[in-house]
Design goal:
By secondary structure, the protein is mainly alpha-helical. It has nine helices and five strands, in the order E-E-E-E-H-E-H-H-H-H-H-H-H-H. The strands form two sheets. The protein has a three-stranded antiparallel sheet. A two-stranded antiparallel ribbon has the order 1-2. A hairpin with a 5-residue loop joins strand 3 and strand 4. It starts with 19 loop residues before the first strand and ends with a helix.
């Protein structure tokens, strides 16, 4: 039997502990807050479980099943690494350390919401790779939109967006910088609606309880869609019939 210690892809920041899990003939070290459970099928499933003391302290990172794929759950860049990164940001915020910036948006902001959406299964498994460039552009367009105060929408708290505020943002999206753009504004609203729904399910504590999704019910302007007329073969058939008749004569 061969044993080895794997390097920590997301080492602890002074809290939590690691568990060992045996994969075949190799002992590997699980990331913080990950526990393995043997299923009835004989396979091992992994679960992300924040200790109760941090949950009681208000940690917004939710417990989550990680599946049975070790690489996706616990490997480098896996889901556990993402969740532990969020946990560390929350711990830094409790200590008064700065966690702002593009690489680590502040928890509870719209920048953070879209980062969470990009890391969710709803995005990684449902949005095709060829469509992600458009999604990225739309998310940047939303977050980089300036408010009347001159600050970015992405830096605003999620809880600050009310239905009335969402209506005003829709109007801003429509105007754009180069004239009216109804189709683009519609895509941005649909993306906001989807991202709010996905991330609210994962982190409900970061959303207002009365209206968790202010993008629902927005009245959008009706776009005039071009109608493509159906192609008919009747004229060509009529011409061919006449030609055939002329040849017979």
């Amino acid at each position: 039997m061969v044993e080895r210690r794997s390097g920590r892809s997301n080492p602890p920041a002074g809290v939590g502990s690691t568990n060992r899990h045996r994969r075949g003939f190799v002992n590997v070290e699980l990331p913080r807050h990950v526990i393995p459970k043997k299923l009835a099928s004989g396979r091992t499933a992994f679960y992300y479980n924040v200790p109760t003391r941090y949950r009681k302290a208000g940690c917004p990172v939710q417990n989550e099943p990680l599946g049975t794929d070790y690489a996706k759950a616990c490997g480098e860049g896996g889901r556990a690494a993402t969740l532990n990164g969020l946990f560390d940001e929350w711990m830094d915020a409790r200590k008064g350390l700065s966690v702002s910036g593009e690489a680590a948006p502040r928890i509870g902001t719209i920048d953070w919401l879209f980062r969470e959406y990009r890391q969710s299964r709803a995005y990684l498994e449902k949005v095709k790779p060829r469509s992600r460039r458009n999604y990225e552009w739309n998310m940047r367009e939303i977050c980089d939109t300036l408010t009347k105060r001159g600050d970015r929408v992405g830096g605003r708290p999620i809880k600050s967006v009310t239905p009335l505020g969402a209506d005003k943002l829709y109007d801003t999206f429509v105007k754009g910088g180069n004239g009216i753009r109804l189709r683009t504004a519609e895509k941005l609203i649909v993306l906001c609606r989807k991202a709010w729904r996905v991330v609210h399910r994962l982190h409900p504590a970061e959303f207002p309880q009365d209206i968790p999704n202010p993008w629902m019910g927005i009245t959008m302007a009706t776009r005039v869609k071009l109608v493509k007329h159906a192609v008919t073969r009747e004229p060509s058939l009529h011409v061919r019939t006449r030609l055939r008749g002329a040849r017979r004569a």
